[in-house]
From TrEMBL:
InterPro entries: Cyt_c-like_dom, Cyt_c-like_dom_sf, Cytochrome_c_Peroxidase/MauG, Di-haem_cyt_c_peroxidsae, MauG/Cytc_peroxidase
Organism: Mesorhizobium dulcispinae
Name of the protein in question: Cytochrome c peroxidase
Domain of life per record: Bacteria
Gene3D superfamilies to which the protein is assigned, alphabetical: Cytochrome c-like domain (1.10.760.10)
Length: 402
């Protein structure tokens, strides 16, 4: 027994030497403050969405949940929101690019805490959760439907539930079965032939579909992880116990994350994201359409009839600060993509906006080397991390998954 204890003690000592000594296991007051700011218990209460008066109505969330999982909300009756946002996979799909009716050019994003974002999609081409929810419904590669068909579907299948939440449905008897300002030439022609009043009626029903789905998605929040338990113990002066106790390698990774590697510059706050857009030199994927990120999304969000300035917003325009003061041009927008939350990241490979990297090891290696961007200017600089440091960072990132 004594021999086993001695061997274990020597192994622990060797680990400390390998990781740079006992000083590596201590945190300064400044480091403790930064670590505490990342803990989930500092996440503030979810603010009301004044652009969606139904955002916190339970009946709206219940209808939104039904629609989220309903394959009838697609052109061919085979695709729903949950096709790509799988409930047992952090509401994502583990694919490099999402596949609905067809294959898209972007990675499916997880949904935990999504209601707290100011911008939506990898490029921020929508400015509210409910406007975001509408976009895949009409995307020909995702659910591939059209506005008129969705309005008829709601009336025929969910009419009573809809009216209990949103009030009376409009008269859709003269509305074509298939019509939309997007979609096929026939659908566009049918839409353009409709009176403006009928277009508004359909758009209102369509907007309310998005508001119901958003009400459901607001309920999806990130769970507590090993990191949170460690951070809380550290902040309160308690000795971490059980799975909250970090290994020397995980502690080194955390120190690198908030220090030398500067990961916390963009991955900050309790959701580990600054909610902003950055060019980090991630290469394009061969054979995918050109993708320039945020720089092309600016015109899209401005043109969206369901944006915060549009007539389908609830409340007044005081909620539109993000859209009003949006940065519209500049080199910093070229190939810039949203900073994703790192919570749960260890179990949802592949990574980046088009699944360019298959593992966290590849992600950390990319940031260590920081290759130049193919277009625009990368925000990151070479970190020149050693193999031991890269492994420690990956070990820490795994503590953010439960």
């Amino acid at each position: 027994m004594r021999r086993l204890v001695r061997v274990a003690s020597l192994a622990a000592l060797a680990a400390l030497v390998l990781l740079g000594g006992c000083d590596k296991l201590q945190f300064s007051d400044a480091e403790k403050k930064t670590i505490a700011s990342l803990a989930l218990n500092t996440l503030p209460a979810l603010e009301a969405d004044t652009t969606n008066q139904y955002a916190d109505v339970p009946a709206a969330a219940a209808l939104g949940s039904t629609l989220f999982f309903d394959v009838g909300m697609s052109r061919d009756g085979t695709v729903s929101c949950s096709t790509c946002h799988k409930i047992d996979r952090q509401f994502q799909d583990d694919l490099p690019q999402a596949v609905g009716v067809g294959r898209t050019n972007r990675r499916t994003m997880p949904l935990a805490g999504v209601a707290r974002d100011p911008w939506f999609f990898w490029d921020g081409r929508r400015d509210s959760l409910w406007a975001q929810a509408l976009t895949p419904l009409e995307n020909p590669l995702e659910q591939a439907g059209n506005r008129a068909a969705f309005a008829h579907y709601i009336r025929n299948r969910f009419g009573e539930r809809y009216e209990r939440i949103f009030g009376p449905l409009p008269d859709l008897s003269a509305v074509p079965a298939n019509a939309s300002p997007l979609g096929t030439d026939a659908e566009k022609a049918a839409w353009n032939a409709m009176p403006a009043s009928e277009q508004d009626d359909v758009n209102r029903v369509f907007a309310n579909i998005g508001k119901a789905i958003a009400a459901f998605e607001r309920s999806i929040e990130p769970p507590q992880t090993r990191f949170d338990r460690f951070a809380i113990d550290l902040a309160t002066g308690s000795k971490p116990q059980g799975d909250a106790a970090f290994s020397p390698e995980e502690i080194l990774g955390l120190k690198l994350f908030i220090g030398k590697a500067s990961c916390v510059t963009c991955h900050n706050g309790p959701r580990f994201t600054d909610n902003s857009f950055h060019n980090t030199g991630v290469p394009p994927v061969k054979d995918l359409p050109p993708d320039r990120g945020r720089v092309d999304a600016v015109t899209q969000v401005e043109a969206d009839p369901f944006n915060c300035f549009g007539k389908f917003r609830d409340g007044d325009a005081s909620a539109c600060r993000e859209l009003r003061f949006m940065v519209k041009d500049g080199q910093q927008l070229v190939r810039a993509y949203k900073t994703p939350s790192l919570r749960g990241a260890a179990t949802r490979a592949p990574y980046m906006h088009a699944g360019q990297f298959s593992s966290l090891d590849e992600v950390v290696a990319h940031y260590s080397k920081a290759p130049a961007a193919v277009e625009g200017v990368s925000d990151v600089h070479p970190l020149d991390l050693s193999g031991r440091e890269r492994a420690a960072l990956v070990a820490f990132l795994k503590t953010l998954s439960e």
